[in-house]
Amino acid sequence: xSLVTVxxxxxxxxxxxxxxxxxxxxxxxxxxxxxxQPYFDLGRLLQKGVVYSDxxxxxxxxxxxxxxxxxxxCILLVPLGSLPALVHFQGDFVLLAYxxxxxxxxxxxxxxDTGSSFEGMGASREAFFAALAEPAFFLAxxxxxxxxxxxxxxxxLQQITVEHWLHAAPSLLLILVALFLVFLAENARIxxxxxxxxxxxxxxxxxxxxxxxxxxxxxxEYAAAxxxxxxxxxxxxxxxxxxxxxxxxxxxxxxxxxxxxLVGLVESSMARLRLIRVPQLLIGAGVFAGxxxxxxFAQ
Amino acid sequence: xxxxxxxLLFLLVLTNLTLLGSSxxxxxxxxxxxxxxxLGCIPLIGLHPFTLQHGLLSLSAVVLxxxxxxxxxxxxxxxxxxxxEVEPFIGFSxxxxxxxxxxxxxxxxxxxxxxxxxxxxxxxxLAIFTMVTGLLLLISRRKALSMVLGYLVxxxxxxxxxxxxxxxxxxxxxxxxxxDVWVAVFGMGIAMYQINREFDHTDVDRLTELRG
Amino acid sequence: xxxxxLLFLLIPLAGIAMAMRVRRGAALFWLSxxxxxxxxxxxxVGMSDLPVCLPITTAGGWFYLDALSGWHLLVMxxxxxxxxxxxxxxxxxxLASDRLSIATARRYNQLWLGSLWTxxxxxxxxxxGLMWVGMEATTLVTAFLVSIYPKPAAIExxxxxxxxxxxxxxxxxxGTLLVAAALPSGGAGSQQLFWTQLMTTGGYNHLxxxxxxxxxxxxxxxxxxxxxxxxxxxxxxxxxxxxVSAMFxxxxxxxxxxxxxxxxxxxxxxxxxxxFTGRLYIFFGLMSIxxxxxxxxxxxxxxxxxxxxxVEHLGIITLGLGLGPAGCFAALLHTVNHSLCKSLSxxxxxxxxxxxxxxxxxxxxxxxxxxxxWGIALVxxxxxxxxxxxxxxxISEYLxxxxxxDRQAIAVIVIFLVGSGVIFVSxxxxxxxxxxxxxxMLSKKHCSVSxxxxxxxxxxxLLFLGLFLPVxxxxxxxxxxxxxxGVQ
Amino acid sequence: xxxxFWLLILPFIGGLAALLDGRxxxxxxxxxxxxxxxxxxxAAKPVFMVLVSGNNIAAALPWSMVxxxxxxxxxxxxAFFLLPVVVLGPLFAxxxxxxxxxxxxxxxxxxxxxxxxxxxxxxxxxxxxxxxxLSFMVAWEVMSLAPFFLVLFHDREKTARHxxxxxxxxxxxxxxxxxxxFLLLGTSGHSLxxxxxxxxxxxxxLRHLLFALAFIGFGVxxxxxxxxxxxxxAHPAAPSHVSAYMSGVMIKMGIYGILRSIQLLGGxxxxxxxxxxxxxVSSGVLGVxxxxxxxxxxxxxxxxxVENIGIILxxxxxxxxxxxLGRPVVAVFGLAGGLLHVLNHSIFKGMLFLGAGSIQQxxxxxxxxxxxxxxxxxxxxxLCFLIGSAAICGLPPLNGFISEFLIYFGAFQGQTVASxxxxxxxxxxxxxxxxIGGLAAxxFVKACGIIFLGSPRSTPAAxxxxxxxxxYLPMLVLAAACCGIxxxxxxxxDLVRYxxxxxxxxxxxxxxxxxxxxxxxxxISLVGGGVIILSLGTALIRFFLLRQRTVCRQPTWGCGYLxxxxxRMQYTASSFARSITLFFDTILHSRVEGxxxxxFFPARIGLHSSTPDPLTRFCFTPLFSGIAKFLGLLRWMQHxxxxxxxxxxxxxxxxxxTALAGGWL
Lengths: 299, 212, 488, 665
Known about the structure:
By secondary structure, chain B is mainly α. Chain B has helices spanning 2-21, 25-41, 52-80, 92-111, 121-140, 144-165, 171-199. Chain B contains seven helices and no strands.
């Protein structure tokens, strides 16, 4: 049964960017690209050749490989809805966070490998914002752990019951907000980063992979999609009530779509923040999580 | 005999005040010599029962302080061709008046000094006065020679004090002390000679090369 | 056995007499070395079983050697042996180039042996009056060692030394007189001022005795270089030739302090407690440490630097005297450590001063490269001096702090540690450029055997005492400390 | 003769031999190496026995110090800290032998260097083995003194001399506090033998004071903020193998001291754990921030030592809090994490310093902005350095992650069970660790990226080549150790079982949490292995995908400039860290000299930024100069007027006599 998680994730992950872009287009009053556009892109990229900078020294080639491998491993650690993760043990979210960290590490090095100053900028910003996002994530996790008493991701996400909503709704909401902000930052969405602009000076994630092409780019994009999916799954699993009623799966998928739409709404309703403002946003996320903890301890 | 003693003490006071007041080096030297003689005589009279040792000691003291030292110092004065003036930091009248007050103070101080069994407070007072005079000379005079004189007067005062309070200082020690004083003055004479040779002045307060 | 004491007094005199006959400069220095070695021989043969054989009395009780003076005798012979050996190295060049005439060399060595004699007298004298005589004589003899090279600065230093110490010691004599005055009247006799006697009689006049101690403390303290009466010390030490300054701070200061210890013991015995002396010791000790810290911090002349280190360490010893038996133990151990260390450092400073032609620390650079042996000596001795383990001064300072803690003298510890901390920082700051810094390159000079011997022996002694304290030495120190305490 | 004796004596003999045979670089190095290898061999069996059995090994040397005979005891805690000392010592010596060969200082007696290198080892060994306050202090001082001479190896450089000065001053002032600590503690048992201490007799206030003394005194050596100031000076100045030994091993003696003193003080109280956590967070965060602002590689690494000491303290602090709360899980995980991080840090930090040394040898500079593109030129060094960087950032599947995971978990577990008052330091630990991890990643991306990737920024960097095997073999060994500990975590975790037990009170049994920990670590290692295998798999797929595609190489896009100068247009380390350093400028106070071009045809313009240690700048320098000023006031005393000198005597006497007459004496 739990293999479902793997298959679902592998197959549906690229859908998330599709949903987000489509909803953006709709809000902007356009028809927009089809939902399956990301799949087409991946397919087309896979058939192309690749170009490398003659400065690069193999680190570029490492980026797609490691990223894909990492997020395949991450799939094992993340529960979907009321399905437990394939591998879950106390403190597994630390491993999850640091695996993502490893991916970021390699990506940033790959960006510096070509010796182009644009990718340097991207790497620098990525490093900075990620460093600020980490504490927020861990504090949010601490909040969940305190609330449920569980120490594994599966436990924390799935033991959120109606009582929790009745008793500790504010802190739960705060935690969700914090997680959502982290989600936006980690996946380089507006207001932190604008993936659609073509002014390299303002981009973060896109500019880091500027010099990747062909299958490499495809793998990186796919890994990014997996990342969005997994982090979205973490948020939505909080909302899926535990207990194995057969209805959980459609509900879960619905929530994922809603989340995608929400992201789209945010992206079309507000502009990218100035880079100096971004740290304040992330620190804000940390503050929300801390506030949630404070409320819990106050009880 | 008491009158003689009081005469000596009077002389002692007189010499001290003279030293504080006078401006001529040669005259100071002679005054110190007189003081030495006076102090040499004091122990003979009334303090202890006269013994050969005491006599010998006083005699040598008189000879040394009345004869040898002045000769030495006058000679170095001549050799060094120092200006014959004392050149004090503190004016004569001031130091005189200071001396006067010190005299009174020491008399008062000595009179209430808890010296069990020692009844000659006056001598002690004058000893203290002499010591302070010596210190005043040491501190307030410019010339090397007058510092030597100050040292001598200080020694005189101590000698006097010893005669007054300590009746069981062995002869050996007494003689050792005398010897030391003699060597000290001798050495200071040589030192003055060397100073004069190297600096062609004996202004002590201009010897301030070594600082910090 | 007791004849050995007389030998100690006779041998230097014989040396002085023989010096009249000697016609060659180098031979004179060999002569004084031989004399000192003869003294050592007497010690080794006559008192091989130190400290068991102590106390020794002779000449109708006039001369007397107990653990306290015995310990100082040991230190004195160590210092004199090393310095006499070093003198051979130090004056070699000047002898060769006639900058040191035969007459001067003779005068130097006679004064040298003379100071040996006077200090021996000070140590052996049982009568505190005689002790004073010896101390005063020390001043007079050593004064002319300072100005053996009659440079203006040297003469100025000599003059100040002569005047200040004479005046100080004069006060010390007042102290001696007052001790006599404080004695219960009646019992006459020349035995009265024997230390052995004073330590047994009772019924002193306490007030007079206290006054007496104040006089002795300030008087001998002037000679021992306790702040604020240390003013002659940096001048004399910086102007005297290397071996002399080594002997000065290596032992002469300790001799003066030894006199203070004797007087202090009497007072403690009479008052039955060491509260009175202890407070004074601590006050002067801390005062010296703080003052020297200030001058070490802003110092440019290396020999003055070392001189102020002497002030500091004499202060530390005095501080130890104020901290009870354990403190006295530490102080006496510190005495030997400091003497060894300070002689070595003055040797190095003197020799380096000769090589660089200046005592200015801004001129002395890269000593380790230019003159390895003396560079090593400088580094080793200065590191030891500022209390770096495993050198022995670390141990004695450790014992001192321990004694202070056992007495719960927290303020004392704080001041001491802050002072020594400042001294450590600034002295190290001076040392590093001198030893390692970039500066003029000198032509390498071969260093003689005697130089190597001196440096290696002293350094290894410092290390040895730092890592290892043999039981006999410990017993020796215990006895000496007990005597210093004076309280039965 | 007991092995402990040989352990102590062999390196010393080796050092002496090196000293006497010191004219030849190679032979002296070999002597030292031989001595240290001897130590390793003689230590291997007892250390292993103690770590697996938990029993102590004791020996007494007939030695009459003031404190009596010299007692040596090897208990699990000592054994654990002894491990890096004896294992890394020879490795670094091997590297150093080759590293020193290119110093052509004529007439330099290399034996001195190697003598003090071995003396450092001896000092550390004795510190770990001795059980008496005095001999501990002597050993401690010896251990502090030896590096002073090692740092002075480049004695012709002013910076090296300054660094040595700061180093020894810091060490000595710390030593004074330790002396007080042992003496005050000794008053409880009237002896300085550790066994005779009776902390329960001391008042709580005194115990807190003692803890403060020990914490600061040992903290100076460990490099805890704010008394870390000697690290960033001394490490860059010393030869690289020495920096590796100091930063990898010696500063851990400070940690050992803190643990030992807490044990001697009879177990921790909550407040101490809190202090450790606070110190850990500040050291960690500020350390990594200062590191980010540096562009001298060794200085950067030095600040990372501060950061990692912070992480270790966090772990130990969590453990102490766990003990004082009586929570075995928290205690065990915290302490285990801290201890394991001690081992890990000594491995990867040592390797990183060796790497820096190789770079310095090849490029004659450690200025990061003058390097670049070295991955192509020194592949092995680059590989090791990359692994080390990933490990120090705590990234799986390497060893750094294992220890950090333990600390995280301890804190998490604690904050779920603890009350609000007890939980906040644990939450602080969580947030702090996360922030540190992120910033460290940023810092090492900067270091590796700018140094090894891109194209060389200077001719020496362009001409650089791989070093000899004697220099890269030790690094390979250490890199292997990083991966090994990461992938076989449970086995290495067993190393800390008994060292932990030494610190835990009898009431807390470490066994149950141990079982859980081993289970989790097994999974983590498996996942780590999985990542590697999957990467290989994907690499294979990618290989097949690209086989029949066109793969071409083009110059990096020159941004439309006519003659792009790739090297000079690259991002520099300073620019990489700029966004972060700007954000934290209130803490860092970076100096920037030069100006940005303004007019239309700008002339040549230089821009240089530097970040000296803020604590040195704003705290210690003013303090010391203030003291100097104050003491300067005393110097008028010595004005040279002999009359006034006499007046001093008289005045002193007069005051004393009046005091006597007034009855104040």
